[in-house]
Amino acid sequence: KTLKLSCSTLAKTIQRFNRTGSTQNSPRNGRPKKLSAHAQRHIQRLCLRNRRISAASVAAEVEGAHYNDLN
């Protein structure tokens, strides 16, 4: 009642701390990013510079710049 949290929230937090030693959320699973942060910034700049550019043109420019992080 002092913390204004439900009993289940407290119990799960304590269990997580005992299991991992931390109360932080664990990283989630998911598909890895195809583009690096640098490539994403490049795409943003392209689109802001020319708002009428087509998606195909952006894709061609990114492919030509070899920003993909794929091995």
From TrEMBL:
<protein>
    <recommendedName>
        <fullName>Transposase Tc1-like domain-containing protein</fullName>
    </recommendedName>
</protein>
<feature type="region of interest" description="Disordered">
    <location>
        <begin position="16"/>
        <end position="39"/>
    </location>
</feature>
<feature type="compositionally biased region" description="Basic residues">
    <location>
        <begin position="30"/>
        <end position="39"/>
    </location>
</feature>
<dbReference type="InterPro" id="IPR009057">
    <property type="entry name" value="Homeodomain-like_sf"/>
</dbReference>
<feature type="compositionally biased region" description="Polar residues">
    <location>
        <begin position="16"/>
        <end position="28"/>
    </location>
</feature>
